[in-house]
Design a protein that fits this description.
- The strands form two sheets. Strands 1-4-5-6 form a four-stranded antiparallel β-sheet. Strands 2-3 form a two-stranded antiparallel ribbon.
- The protein is an alpha+beta fold.
- It has two domains: 3-80 and 118-162, PhyR, sigma-like (SL) domain (Butyryl-CoA Dehydrogenase, subunit A, domain 3, Up-down Bundle), CATH 1.20.140; 173-276, Nuclear Transport Factor 2, Chain: A (Roll).
- The chain is elongated, with a radius of gyration of 20 Å.
- Helix content is 52%, strand content 10%.
């Protein structure tokens, strides 16, 4: 296999490999690093002995991401407040980044947030099975598990995720866009009630300040609590802040920039944007 041909094989799978690493790690930069290292190993190893290039590439990516995830989760033990995955941000009119990985409904920020309930091995098995439809026997080989163990790990992951383990529907994009526009209106006019009225009674608000920016430390549940938070949030909005409608993981989102702080760009979905501007 020539270098050009081998590169073509790798490039044919690169976006899917990125999708796997991103789902496991929740970090764009870390996922890019893992995929780059996979390429180096692909070029270095004996490719003539590889019977199934896709399985080989996914196996290497899985193991690299798994090692990095174990280290990251140890670090997050002392993380200030909630940890949220880094959004994949594109211009609103661009194609959704879901094309970079196979199951679009497992790429949402809400779903990635749910995956934090799982151990690293559970997360790897669950993502390989639910997002990329690998059979248990192949997953076992990739992660150096027995086939029975891979099945057990997958069932345990499903149990930990409960009824939220499989996305049940994709929210209507028009309603998502309406939420974004109502939030922007609330930020500019101070009228929070019209926006809050669109929220479900059991809405969940999660903020991630990383210990560097003011944010809610614990998730807020319920429309009343979120509405109260919104009221305080809007009061803190300044003339220097700018708001732009973008896409985060394919869904309408708000990009908030604070002109008072150089190079501070907070990419958030609607729920996360509410906390991002609470400085």
């Amino acid at each position: 296999m020539s270098v050009q041909t081998s590169d073509d094989v790798y490039l044919a799978h690169r976006d899917a490999l990125f999708g796997l690493a991103y789902r496991m790690l929740g970090s764009v930069a870390d996922a890019e690093d893992v995929v780059a290292e996979t390429y180096l190993r692909w070029r270095r190893d004996d490719r003539q002995a590889v019977a199934d290039p896709r399985a080989y590439l996914f196996a290497v990516t899985s193991r690299l991401a798994l090692d990095l995830l174990k280290s990251a989760q140890r670090t997050r033990v002392s993380y200030v407040g909630s940890w949220l995955p880094e959004p994949l941000v594109t211009a609103y009119d661009d194609d959704a980044p879901a094309d970079r990985a196979e199951r679009a409904d497992t790429l949402s920020l809400a779903f990635l947030y749910l995956l934090e309930r799982l151990s690293p091995t559970e997360r790897a098995v669950f993502v390989l099975r639910s997002a990329f439809d690998f059979p248990h026997a192949q997953i076992a080989e990739m992660l150096q598990l027995s086939s029975d163990n891979a099945r057990q790990v997958y069932r345990r992951a499903q149990q930990r995720l409960g009824e939220d383990g499989e996305p049940r529907f994709v929210p209507d994009e028009q309603r998502q866009r309406e939420l974004v526009e109502r939030f922007l209106a609330a930020a500019s006019t101070g009228e929070v009630e019209p926006f809050a009225a669109l929220l479900a009674e059991d809405v969940l608000l999660v903020g991630d300040g990383g210990g560097k920016a003011a944010s809610i430390r614990e998730p807020a549940h319920g429309r009343l609590r979120v509405a109260r938070f919104l009221r305080g949030l809007v009061r803190r909005t300044t003339a220097e802040m700018t708001f732009e409608v973008v896409r985060a993981n394919g869904a309408p989102a708000v990009l908030v920039r604070d002109g008072l702080i150089r190079r501070v760009d907070e990419y958030r979905t609607v729920e996360q944007a509410l906390a991002a501007v609470a400085k």
